[in-house]
Every structure is written in C-alpha cells, then in structure tokens.
Amino acid sequence: MLIGDRAEILVPVGRQELFDSGVLHYYNYGHLYNTSTKIIARTTTQDRMLKSAEYFMAGFFGLEWTNNATLELIIEQEGFNNSLAGYFQCNNSNLAVSEGGTNASVVWENIYLQNATKRLQALSPNFKLNVSDVYNMQTLCPYETVAFGYSAFCDLFTYEEWRSFEYSIDLSFAGNNYFQSPTGRAIGIGYVEEILARLQNHVLTTTGTQANITLDNNTRTFPLNQTLYFDFSHDTNIAAVLTAFGLTQFAQLLPSSGPIPSNQQLIVSHLQPFGARVDIEVISAPQPISATRTVSSNSSYVSGAPTTYIHFIINQRTLPLGVSFPACGNRTDGWCELQTFLKVQNNSLAEAQYDYSCNGYVGILSLLAMLEWIALCKL
Hints:
Elements: E1 2-5, H1 12-29, E2 39-44, H2 47-61, E3 69-74, H3 100-112, H4 114-123, H5 131-148, H6 159-176, H7 184-199, H8 213-216, E4 230-234, H9 235-244, H10 268-271, E5 277-285, E6 307-314, E7 317-319, H11 321-324, E8 336-337, H12 338-344, H13 348-352, H14 354-359, H15 367-377
Parallel strand pairs: 1-4, 2-3, 2-4
Antiparallel strand pairs: 1-5, 5-6, 6-7, 6-8
Helix pairs in contact: 1-2, 3-6, 7-9
C-alpha cells in the first residue's frame, strides 16, 4: 500500500485527511492484521512524510498505534538510496532534461491565461501583470484554501480557466514524472523492485536501482511475513512508480498547445490528489474466478486449481490491469493472475534503464522516450 502527499508542511486539513484515510483502510483491511504481531511500516525522514505516516497509523490503529507498528524512517537526502523518494539518487531527474513537463505547462499557461491576464490587468492598473503572475495567483487558490480554509483568488477565474489549470498540472506530471519523462520509469523502479521481491517472498541482495540494500537485505527492516504493508511516499514518486510498472493506460501524449483530450486518462487530481493511495491486493481463490463475472458468488468460480490474483486500486477505484498488460486478459474485475503479472514484470528493470536514464546523457527530447512513444502508438 503506497500513500502519498504533496506539501512542504502537513497543514491541518492534511492531518485530517491522513487520519481519515487510516480509518477507511482499517474498515477495508483491518481484518487482515495479525494482532499477535507488530508490523514494520516505512516512511522517510522528511517532516511531512513522517507526520503523514503518524496520522495515518493513528487513524488505522488508534492513538496507541506504536503498540501495533514500528515506523522505519528511510533517510531522504542526497547520497542515500531511498525508493520512496527515488529522485535523490537519479541525477538526471534534477536537471533540465527532466523538466519537459514544466516546459509544456508553461506553453499551455501562455495560451489559456491570455484572457485572464488582460482581465486582471484591467482591474489592477497600478501593477504590471504577466501570465506567470496570473498563474501564481491561480496557484494560490488551492494553497491558501488548504492552509487557511479560504482564498480570495479562487473567484478571479472562470470554470474553463480552472479546467485548464488542472490540465497544466497534468502536463507537468506527464512530462516530469510519467511516460513523457526520460527519467520517469527510473525514479519509480526501486519501489517496483521491492514490491516484486515481496510478492516472490525474498529480500534484495543486489540492485541496480535506488533501493536501499542495507535495509532491503534484512527481514527485520524488510519483512516478508506481514499480512499488511504500509509505505508512505510523495505524489511525484507514486507517478513514477505507476510508470515503472508499465501502466501504459497513462502514457497518452498530452499536447502542450491543447485542446484538452476528451478521453484523457492521466488526470492528476484523480491519480495523485493529496493523500493519494495505491492499494495492491493479493487475493487467493480456491478455484479460478470467471473473467466475466459481474457479482461475487460461488457461481463465479470455474473449474481448475487454486489461483492467486493481484488487484490494483487507486483512490478506491480499480485499475484494470488488462488495459496495460494484454496478457492479464480483459477481465471485468480488472484483476490479473499473479504469475502472469510477475511474468509481465520480468522486464521492468531492464525497461527502466536505470543507470543510463539517471546518469547517462539524455537529450532534452529523449530518444528513449520518443522510441517508447512510437512503440506505444503502434499498439
């Protein structure tokens, strides 16, 4: 289970949302907790990440949560491997080569905010406003709202301008963290490597990623026998993890000049809102389950041996794995047989090209990313 946040400090509404998320997850998964054990949950040393984890755990277990879980704090800074903040050990992710999304967003801002800039300039004759100023005003609306409960900037913009603001965020994530980024897969691949190790019940003894081998090679800090796992990460890191898994339903090319695609799948407010959650369920069934079932009942079973499935849920919505991985089949429940999923993921590390993506020379328009787009367009 991967839970994310997106602010420099955890504001009051953030504390409430993380606590409420913990309560929700207790209702969904509390029955899986083995009361005779004390689990390891992982977060980072960044203050807001630590507090996010603490409020979530308080919601899940109660104020005495330290009796049920130990928080493992992974150092989040330069020079330390950390799969929950994968960009620190990916040099290119902090260079201009990985700012394609920011650049695309600026292009879009200069299109959709032309009228707003003229309108607000007319109301502010003593100030010289440009598009960047107006975009900053728009950005203050959500920031002030979560910090103070209200922002006067919100009413300055039209509905269509707010739709376009949302799209500017989508462009930023698409180019900086998802498939249009030359480092997107690499930033998220360390966490994918850890998930695959858990699913196959082994620690990591070697890695070609930012996974922390000191911690991941020891079952005291990387346990394999828990019925529940909680990891707390950042919104951008979660985006990179989805990319590293190869979930190509979010690989749609978003045009920086518009129009906003009518069938857009990568919408950040749906995928990485504050307190975003990616729940990964492993489900064991006594027999195979019909791929076309519409309800849960004994009639859903088909003949065959016991079968284990994997189910991805993003913010309480099923992520249909068959859309990205045809080998999983077109199942109505969105599940995938676990062994099929593991076979699909066999090449995920190689596809991320971690060392080259993070440390090699990659042009502003990455050849690797472009080749990936060409391949996707032919699917």
